[in-house]
Design a protein that fits this description.
Blueprint lengths: L6 H15 L4 H16 L1 E3 H5 L6 H19 L11 E3 L7 E7 L9 E3 L3 E3 L2 E3 L2 H12 L4 E7 L17 E2 L7 H13 L9 H22 L3 H33 L4 H25 L8 H6 L2 H11 L2 H10 L4 H12 L3 H9 L4
Parallel strand pairs: 2-8
Antiparallel strand pairs: 1-2, 3-6, 3-7, 4-5
Helix pairs in contact: 1-2, 4-6, 6-7, 7-11, 7-12, 8-9, 8-11, 12-13
Length: about 350
Amino acid sequence: MGFLGLTGTLALAAATLCLTSGCSSMGYYAQSVGGHLALLRAARPVPEVLGDAQSDAVLKERLALSQRMRDFAVSELKLPDNASYRRFADLKRPAAVWNVVAAPELGLQLKTWCYPIMGCAGYRGYFDRGEAESYATALREEKLEVSVYGVPAYSTLGRLPGDWMADPLLNTFIQWPEGELARLIFHEISHQVAYAADDTEFNESFATAVERIGGARWLATHASAQARDEYARFDGRRQDFRALTMAWRDKLDALYRSNASDADKRERKAALMAQLRAEYEAMKAQRWGGFSGYDGWFARANNASFGVLAAYNALVPDFERLFERSGRDFERFYAEVRRLAGLPKAQRRAALASTGD
């Protein structure tokens, strides 16, 4: 998953502000509004799709499964009970949006963009891949390292009015393995529980913690042995990927923070990236039986790619500890996360970190 963020909500809110106050980014917000509304217009209620004789049988099975997951999210994970993920849209494309992220040549801090009402985020989303690539080219001309990646879904935080405006299921993820489908649904809905403006890492790490906890419960209590085995293989490779990339991210970060000259940093950076790719090839051959699903990531890996990794994983252990300290009670857990989200960022991070004390 890419940043599963605010495209729809910020687009509608920001466009209104731009119309009333003048905005140099009006074109960007216009594409966000148009793209989001097109997505909503393509959506049909799941019961309608299930009752349509022309609907694909495999799709029907997956949609029925998604609704059981949606019910589980409410009854077992205490996530919001609303119209989100009760409709389905076939977008006729492989991603909901394409995100652009950027970082400096010798640093891992993502460039941020600030939006009216919704605050700042370390990405910029486009419904058209060509527009995303065009913007990426402009950023590269600023000597930034840039990554463009497809996002299967995004959350509007449950803030748009009416059932028609609720986030739908999409063709971009509905056929995912059962464990992954469950995790994505739980992740997206959890964004409706708490949101801290200007803190992407907090928001995404919280949602990732919920998806891990909820996904494990779903697999243990509702999935078949085959689905659990399929997920174990998938997740095993993901854990290997995370361990490898986060270790090398730390090495790069230490290099960039060192007192070495820029010239030395560039030389050592190139060596580290070559070593990373060699270690990946060895892991792929020795542990994964040649599985090549991550080849594209490693071929394109740069500082922006590593910056994204931190947003999704850095604070997850803190949230998992907070869940344990809440007695594994979701409602108590969510209440504390909402309290933290309302604090100033520095105070929020300090309080979250204290869960390990």
